[in-house]
Structures are given as C-alpha cells and as structure tokens.
C-alpha cells in the first residue's frame, strides 16, 4: 500500500454530496446531485470558508456528482487553485487514491472529492481503524469533509465538517 509523507501537509477528503437516484437507463456515472445534495455541498463550503480551509489543489472524480460537489468548493479557494478531474478516481481503489495524494509533492494542501467506500478506506489508511471508528461510528456521510493533518507517526484527523 502507498504511504503518504508530507508534503502535502494537509489533506481534505470530501465525499460527494447526495446524488439523485438513477433514472431508467441512466448510468451511475451520470447521476447529478439531488436538491438536498446541492444544499449540503453549499453548507459544507460555507463551513470550510468560516474555518479558513483552503486547498491548493482539488482532485475530483469525473463522475457528475463529484464534479458538482467540487464546483461548490470553488468559493473556498483562491483563483490560482487548480482543479483536476481524474477518471481513475471513479471506481478507484484505495491504492489509487493514496497514490494520487502521495504524488502531490508540490502542494501544501490537497482536497480529494471522491466516492465511498474508498474515501472512507482512505481516511482509515491515514488515521487508523480506531481513530476512524471513534470519529465516524456511522461511516463517512455524503458531503462529509475530513480534514487530516500530517502528524508523526500517523496522520491526524483534526476536523470533520458535515451538513
């Protein structure tokens, strides 16, 4: 399994907000956010603004619901913040997510907008099973934003923002 060492020194893990159920014949990849999902993404963005969270780079799945969730975060970043939409995040494995994060050596803070269960597995790989169970006993909710900072010997969950 890929290990991550700073930089980045802060990782934001954002699970996409609630999506609509697939319409007949619609691909899972193409499901948009529900009205509730749009509202939740905006609430999390507002909370991130209040807390001063500013990723230098946002990496998102190319699935529609992740792209829409990432767009809600556009308000919290500077105009120079780069957005990367990466096909490999959709249906990506834990090692895919960790490798993407580990390869960002020129970024201080990186946000990954992605899918469960892999986003939860990524958080567990960073902070450990016990810390994950204590912080999220009911799992990683939609529109949940984990703020993880570099600490020795493991990463440390410093905040969790949700609607």
UniProtKB/TrEMBL annotation:
This is Phosphohistidine phosphatase protein. SUPFAM superfamilies: Phosphoglycerate mutase-like. CDD domains: HP_PGM_like. InterPro entries: His_Pase_superF_clade-1, His_PPase_superfam. It comes from the Bacteria.
């Amino acid at each position: 399994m890929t290990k991550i060492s700073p930089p980045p020194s802060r990782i934001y893990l954002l699970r996409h907000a609630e999506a609509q159920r697939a319409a007949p014949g619609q691909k899972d990849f193409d499901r948009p956010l529900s009205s509730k999902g749009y509202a939740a993404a905006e609430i999390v963005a507002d909370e991130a603004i209040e807390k001063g969270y500013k990723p230098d780079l946002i990496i998102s799945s190319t699935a529609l619901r992740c792209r829409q969730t990432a767009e809600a975060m556009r308000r919290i970043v500077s105009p120079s913040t780069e957005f990367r939409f990466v096909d490999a995040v959709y249906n990506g494995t834990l090692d895919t997510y960790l490798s993407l994060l580990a390869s960002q050596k020129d970024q201080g803070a990186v946000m990954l907008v992605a899918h469960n269960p892999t986003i939860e597995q990524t958080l567990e790989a960073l902070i450990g099973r016990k810390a994950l169970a204590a912080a999220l006993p009911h799992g990683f909710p939609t529109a949940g934003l984990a703020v993880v900072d570099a600490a020795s010997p493991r990463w440390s969950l410093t905040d969790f923002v949700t609607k």
